[in-house]
Amino acid sequence: MTGLLPLPASRAEILRTQSVRKRVAFDRAKQAAWYKGKLDHINADKLDDPDEWQKIPIVDKDVLRKLDHKTFMEQFCIAPREDIAEYWRSGGTTGAPVFYPRTFKDVEYGMVTWGRSFPAMNIGPGDSCHISFPIGIHPAGQIWARSAHEAGVGMNWVGAGNSVPSAAQLALIQSLEPTVLISMPSFALHLANLAAEQGVDLAQSSVKKIICSAEPLSDAKREKLARTWGAEVFNVFGMSEAGLMGAEGIAHDGMHIWSDMFFLEVVDPETGEMLAPGAEGHLCQTPLWTNHATPFLRWNAGDIVTFVEHGTSGGQFAYLFPMIRHANRTTGFFKIRGVNINHAEFEDFVFSMPPVNDFQAVLVTDDDDLETLNVRIEVRRGEDADAIAAEMAERIKMIFEMSARIDVLEIGTLARLFESSIKAPRFVDERK
């Protein structure tokens, strides 16, 4: 796949590519029913002018939440059925997951996006990877695994802990001796805790690099991973709407974004206007190559980032590509174990259960270092609190595809907690 889209020679070449591909993306978007009438006032010959580009409406998950799959396909898909190779499940807005159609060309370019992660992190021939991401309709696991061979990297297609138990994954690492672990950070920490219980020192294992994605990687989590595994920890960034968009270099000072494949903006959350480098705002991205089926323009996934022109890693990727730095928070949703839980949708779900008076959803890191959704509820007097808690846990697992711990609080507890805040803190991130 490297022959399909080789690395650009310079940043000047990237600017030329962006100029050409923005026009392609714009013309494709005009074919989508959703954009009908929304782009007519924009001068397609001036897309490199920020003032003109910013006239394009921003698209976010709230737009898609209102659509069932049939309507989504009618509104956003421009590819004929015979061109659809597969569907990529969104990691976002659970309860109404979106399945993005991907053409055969989209998959080829998607392989390029994931394949670039290996040389960006100095992973190459002689390395072998143990991948603990789900191998299925969500693209991260299967496309990442498939892209490794083009980079001359070995890949053990293990899958997530719900398909291959943690103990079995540890046994595979000990016997197959991979040099790289690809995992959500919380699962990598969970494996380390399990190994400690078994008396296994993972710092002496074959794993020398850990690649994390799909959930926030705090400094504390990174340090613990590095210490317990004796490995260098890298972070990467991607989304089902686009592909794998970038990766850290050896300086670990941000994620270098493949800017010849994705046009990035950091915008003001209120006005949508582009912000200068260093200012914190919403990340908007426009896919320049993975847009044959769903030609999104200015897609806002809710990530809060800053844009950095140059990092300090050195090497080809740092020379070519700018960086983003995550604020490790988002607006409007939780990201846990690779899945986004939309705040408004979850609130609607809870308040659709009449026996529940009030709630607070808290993300916590348990003693085994797995991230957990802890839902604290108050139940109407006279109701069977245990039965309500059990029903809620079952419905969360069915609707949001997420296990949750339900705690029943004494009536009035949340009111006392909320009254000290201007806005009731119903969604709290307490992860370490």
Task: Summarize the SSE layout with pairings.
Layout: H1 11-29, H2 50-53, E1 59-60, H3 61-65, H4 69-76, E2 84-89, E3 99-103, H5 104-115, H6 117-120, E4 128-131, H7 139-147, E5 154-157, H8 166-176, E6 180-183, H9 185-197, E7 209-212, H10 219-229, E8 232-239, E9 243-248, E10 255-257, E11 262-267, E12 281-287, E13 299-308, H11 315-320, E14 323-330, E15 333-336, E16 339-342, H12 343-351, E17 356-365, E18 371-379, H13 385-400, E19 404-409, H14 413-418, E20 427-429
Parallel strand pairs: 1-13, 4-5, 4-6, 6-7, 7-8, 17-20, 18-19
Antiparallel strand pairs: 2-3, 8-9, 9-10, 10-14, 11-12, 12-13, 13-14, 15-16, 17-18
Helix pairs in contact: 5-7, 8-9, 9-10
Structure commentary:
By secondary structure, the chain is of the alpha/beta class. The protein is built from 14 helices and 20 strands. Strands 1, 4, 5, 6, 7, 8, 9, 10, 11, 12, 13 and 14 form a 12-stranded mixed β-sheet that branches. A 4-stranded mixed β-sheet has the order 19-18-17-20, covered by helices on one side. β4 (128-131), α7 (139-147) and β5 (154-157) form a beta-alpha-beta unit. The chain has 2 domains: 11-336, ANL, N-terminal domain (Rossmann fold, 3-Layer(aba) Sandwich); 353-429, 2-Layer Sandwich (GMP Synthetase, Chain A, domain 3). The chain has helices at residues 11-29, 50-53, 61-65, 69-76, 104-115, 117-120, 139-147, 166-176, 185-197, 219-229, 315-320, 343-351, 385-400, 413-418; strands at 59-60, 84-89, 99-103, 128-131, 154-157, 180-183, 209-212, 232-239, 243-248, 255-257, 262-267, 281-287, 299-308, 323-330, 333-336, 339-342, 356-365, 371-379, 404-409, 427-429. It is globular and about 65 Å long. α9 (185-197) crosses α10 (219-229). The chain is 31% helix and 26% strand.
